[in-house]
Amino acid sequence: MAGGALQIAGLLVGGIGMIGTFAVTGMPQWRVSAFIENNIIVFETIWEGLWMHCIRQANIRMQCKVYDSVLALSPDLQASRGLMCAVSVLSFLAFVVAIIGMKCTRCAQSSWQAKGYIILTAGVLFILSGAVELIPVCWVANTIISDFYNPAVNVAQKRELGEALYLGWVAAFCLIAAGAIFCCFCCCCEKTRSYGYSAPTHYSTGSQLLHMKAESSYSKSQYV
User: What is the pTM of this model?
Assistant: First the structure.
């Protein structure tokens, strides 16, 4: 029962991380215009994402345009686009593998070892996808902060951290947490299985001793 609840919890957390990763990949709010010093045009907000940039005016009208070329992006956004696509594939693959591993719960007893390997693979994939997702999110955040405090950068070109970065950190944490849950489940199953194998050995040894004592007493009585 506890193992099943642990699997369900890991699958739910991993699913949240996977959906969050898909949302972060498509959201345009990676970089948001900063209103500092002489830049007081507060009715216009500029968003820059991996696939498009948008201009929102007075919370009423918003226009978005897809980038004409990958070369139009900055180097950090170019790398982030490829890494986030890889993370999306990895997280989806981990989610599918986790579902396959959970379906093996009602299989025969001989498939417990295969189930452990499948769940462990899902856990490793979740952890790997979460770790890879941290790379583009932290890279873009570091670039934004460096440019914000760089006096050589024009005020109109300075940006702030967008909602997509915060959501990316949460999604990465969920993926890593899901992977840790599945790995802990595999460790618990391994300990339980090893204990189950060792317990009959002690029982059989005790029964053999009792059987030998019974035979010796029977032989003595027969001798008398």
Answer: 0.77
